[in-house]
Every structure is written in structure tokens, then in C-alpha cells.
Design brief:
By secondary structure, this protein is of the alpha/beta class. It is about 45% helix and about 15% strand. The protein has a single domain, classed as HUPs (Rossmann fold), CATH 3.40.50. It is globular, with a radius of gyration of 17 Å. The model has no long low-confidence stretch (mean pLDDT about 90). It binds adenosine-5'-triphosphate and nicotinate mononucleotide.
């Protein structure tokens, strides 16, 4: 079966998970995993699952960026990135995917997404998950103060990022903005989407770095300038 045909089944399954979630009137603690996901890899999934479990979050909402302000204009098509996130999360009942950002045709900022989420889901407490690298740059984000009012941030350690430097920055942010930021050690993998794109461009293996369905989607749709088809 072609993987592109499976994407539709994933969309149906995800819509049904979202409808169930919307019906829930109780206060729900949700984790938001935002990212460019170009492509999604196992470190994203492992980080999200570790944090869901550690903080007893009810669900993790993956929100692929549409037109992220901080990445080059020519990144992979947003619907391909979104489809790969759907494929990667379909088997986990607690992982849901939202298309809020891919459907926005202007630049996508987190503050707009958080405001929108609070409107759609009345009783949610939001925990925004970021790598420690992203939290260090948060003062460059749009409406930084407002972001901190709308969500608690969880800064996950990431290989290659100095924990001490990140901790210093987090303490400054907490003081300056009265922010709620939890810093957490996550046993993780030293991989990035950049590394995976480079492997693909050099025609090297990405097996066990991304879910098999994502790997197939990449090959079937000839993403990332691959030289030969598999
Ligand atoms: N290996 C990792 N361990 C922990 N967190 C990660 C890891 N890779 C990415 N993240 C976090 O996941 C979120 C989404 O990341 P993103 O989609 O930019 O992936 P990336 O691998 O950093 O991509 P790129 O290499 O293209 O910059 C960010 O908050 C990022 O810090
Ligand atoms: O809102 C902003 O100004 C902003 C600027 C840079 C990054 N972000 C968000 O940070 C998250 C991680 O970004 P990324 O793509 O670097 O992994 C993702 O949800 C982005 O939308 C948000």
C-alpha cells in the first residue's frame, strides 16, 4: 500500500481523537509540542512522551508550524511536514495533531496559537514544550510577556545545549517576566531534523531515526533532494 493513501486514514483517526477531546468538559492539562518538524523524528516523539508521563499531562497536541518566522522561506511544504506528523503520531491515543498553524497563511507566531487554543478549548491548562535551545531565544518571539501569561513553559534538555547556560537564562526569564518555566532533564537522542535532511541528501540511511511510515513518506514523495529512489 502506498503511504500517501494511508495519510487519509490518519486524518480520519486524528479528527476522531480531536472530536473526543473537544467533548471533554473537565479541566485538561495539555502539552503543546510546536515545531517545524522538517521532518519529525524520534527525539521529538520521545521528548513529548517523557514529558506527558512525567507531568501527568492528559494529551500532547503537536502543532506543526506553517510559516515559521525564524526559518528560511524555502523549507519543505507545510502540508508534507504536517502529514509526516500525522503518520508519526497516529498510533498513540494521547498524541493529537492540530492544523491551526498550517492553515494560517501569514507568519505563524506562538502567541496567536495560544490565544486561539484558549478560545477553542475553554478548560485547558497549557504546558508549552520547547527544547532548551528554543527557550534561550524566547525573548525574540512575538509578545514574549503574553506567551508567559498564557502557558507554563517546559524547557527540555537537548544534547549539545549547555544545561548551565540554559538554566541561567531560565532564571533570568522567571524573574523578568514572572514566567512559569519548568526545566527538565529528558533522556534524549542526539539527532535533529537538520542531521536527517543531510543524511538524506547524501543518500545515507535514516532508519531508526524517524518512524518507518515517515521514512516511506519521504521516499515516496522524494523530499529533501534525494539523489536516488529506494
Ligand atoms: N534531539 C532533541 N532532543 C530534545 N528536543 C528536541 C530535539 N530535537 C528537537 N527538539 C525540540 O523539538 C521542538 C521542535 O524542533 P524542530 O522541529 O525545530 O526540530 P529540530 O530537530 O531542532 O530541527 P532543525 O534541525 O531543522 O532546526 C523544539 O522545541 C526543539 O528544541
Ligand atoms: O512566536 C514566535 O515569535 C516564535 C519564534 C520562534 C519559534 N517559535 C515556536 O517555537 C517552537 C519551536 O520552534 P522550532 O521550529 O525552532 O522548533 C515552534 O512552535 C515555533 O512556532 C515561535
Amino acid at each position: 500500500m502506498r503511504i500517501n493513501d494511508l495519510v487519509n486514514d490518519c486524518k480520519v483517526e486524528n479528527t476522531s481523537k480531536l472530536e473526543q477531546f473537544k467533548k471533554n468538559n473537565k479541566t485538561t492539562r495539555i502539552g503543546i509540542m510546536g515545531g517545524t518538524f522538517n521532518p519529525i523524528h524520534y527525539a521529538h516523539l520521545a521528548t513529548a512522551e517523557f514529558i506527558r508521563d512525567k507531568y501527568g499531562l492528559d494529551k500532547i497536541l503537536f502543532i506543526p508550524s506553517g510559516n515559521p518566522p525564524h526559518k528560511p522561506e524555502d523549507i519543505t511544504n507545510k502540508y508534507d511536514r504536517y502529514n509526516m506528523v500525522l503518520l508519526a503520531t497516529v498510533n498513540n491515543k494521547d498524541f493529537l495533531v492540530l492544523d491551526l498553524e498550517v492553515n494560517r497563511n501569514v507568519r505563524t507566531y506562538t502567541v496567536d496559537t495560544l490565544r486561539q487554543l484558549k478560545k477553542i478549548y475553554k478548560n485547558i491548562e497549557i504546558y508549552f514544550i520547547t527544547g532548551a535551545d528554543a527557550i534561550c531565544d524566547i525573548e525574540q518571539w512575538k509578545d514574549v510577556q503574553e506567551n508567559f501569561k498564557l502557558a507554563t513553559f517546559i524547557a527540555a534538555t537537548r544534547p549539545g545545549i549547555s544545561v548551565l547556560k540554559a538554566q541561567e537564562k531560565i532564571e533570568q526569564l522567571i524573574k523578568k517576566y514572572n514566567a512559569k518555566i519548568l526545566s527538565v532533564y529528558v533522556p534524549s537522542l542526539d539527532i535533529s531534523s537538520t542531521y536527517i535532511r543531510n543524511q538524506l541528501r547524501e543518500n545515507k540511511s535514516v532508519r531508526y531515526l524517524v518512524p518507518e511510515s515517515v521514512e516511506k513518506y519521504i521516499y515516496e514523495n522524494k523530499l529533501y533532494d534525494m539523489e536516488m529512489s529506494r
